[in-house]
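ok so i was messing around last nite and threw this chain in just to see what happens. nothing serious, just curious
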Amino acid sequence: MSTHYFIGIRIPGQAAEKIGQTRDSWELSTHKRLTPPADMHITLIFIGEDRFGELGKIAERLGQIDQAPFLLRLAGVKTFGNPETPRIVYAALADSPELMRLQRAVQRQLDPLELSTDPKPFVPHVTLASRWKGGSLPEKLELEELEFPVDSFSLFEIHPRETPRYKEIETYSLKGGA
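result:
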């Protein structure tokens, strides 16, 4: 099995712990995998495997992104897939022009490369539970309003059989910006 990569924003420790505690209070038995707080993140771009050996170029190009830090706010709980049997339960994020600008900047840096990124539209979210196994979702899945800073983003390597599953191989500070 080849190694896969993505570019994302790690949720800060204290915020991730709080999100995880709230999610655990729901006692979700409907999903096979509950995301550990140490793995909570927002995927900006899923790369998959590095078939063309471009990881070094990716890392170099991401270092050219110039954007100021910003704040993100949670905006409720939503699902992907059939609402009755959702494959993913996630924390939605409030609209953020800064997050959208960062995602577009990352995409622009990757466009000249040969890799095949995920073509699905960007839906900012934090996965809380995945892999439906059956049963009924609790009626109310609520997260308290929570705001957290984004001062960096990272190039991650995926290790499916380890915890944490996602390891930063390069982190880029947000400190500039137009």
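not much to say yet. Residues 97 and 132 are 32 Å apart (CA to CA).
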